[in-house]
Amino acid sequence: RVEKTVHEHPDDAGAQAAWLKLLLEDGKLDEAAGAARRLSTLKPAPALLVDAARALLEANQFGPARELLAQARATDSSAEADLAIANFQMLAAAGKNAEAASALEKAVQAAPGRADLIRQGAAFYLRQKNRTAALNLTDRAASGHPADREILLVYAVTLAAAGQPDGSAQALKQIRERWPEWRAVWLACGVALHDREALETAKTLGSHASAEIDLDWLMQHPLREW
């Protein structure tokens, strides 16, 4: 249906954006890049460009994403944060660690409350074995956003990954007490603290199969968005 709409109404920016996302889901990256270029020529609203760019970023298509974000920023300064995040991701993917670290700090200044950015930044520093930087980043974010459970969880998991199990246990306990219905924190407790009872609780908060899948991801990618 979307493909039909795109062919019949090539000037429909919304349809082009939807088609781009479907192509990304199917792994048709070259076609998705072409769809991104067509979307750009239609000069849609900045919000639509940013939404399409985020889909591209999730698929690690940094170049096309950056182009859409630059176009969005030209008319809407609110796209600055997404562009800064894209720059960080591109540099990190290219292995330019020093430049990526600098871009990360700029991105955090532009979007200090973006849990996805804090998670990516912590993972980046931990891959560089820079525990101090990872803890500093997540501690600042948690202190600045004490009501954001996703940021608090990233901080708690970073503590565990940085070799501070006691601090992680305390942070996870506080999150669990505030949001006892949140399955992600129970999964984190189970993995970070080797707490079998917490894993059983996580299973009761969702289907058994989905809990097992999430647990597998947690064991391999502890800073993944659970």
Model description:
This protein has 226 residues and is an all-alpha fold. 77% of the residues lie in helices and 0% in strands. Helix 3 (29-41) runs parallel beside helix 5 and helix 5 packs antiparallel against helix 6 (80-93). Mean pLDDT is 88; it is low at 208-215 and 221-226.
Tally of strands: 0
**Average of the residue pLDDT scores:** 88
Question: How much beta, percentage-wise?
Answer: under 5%
Question: SSE order in H/E notation?
Answer: HHHHHHHHHHHHHH
Q: How many distinct helices? A: 14
What class, by secondary structure content? mainly alpha
Largest sheet: none
Helix percent band: over 70%
Low-confidence stretches: 208-215, 221-226
Radius of gyration: 20 Å
List keywords for this structure.
single chain, 226 residues, mainly alpha, globular
How would you concisely characterize the structure shown here?
This protein has 226 residues and is mainly α.
SSE order and pairing:
Elements: H1 2-8, H2 13-25, H3 29-41, H4 46-58, H5 62-75, H6 80-93, H7 97-110, H8 115-127, H9 131-144, H10 149-161, H11 165-178, H12 183-192, H13 196-204, H14 208-220
Helix pairs in contact: 1-2, 2-3, 2-4, 3-4, 3-5, 4-5, 5-6, 6-7, 7-8, 8-9, 8-10, 9-10, 10-11, 11-12, 12-13, 13-14
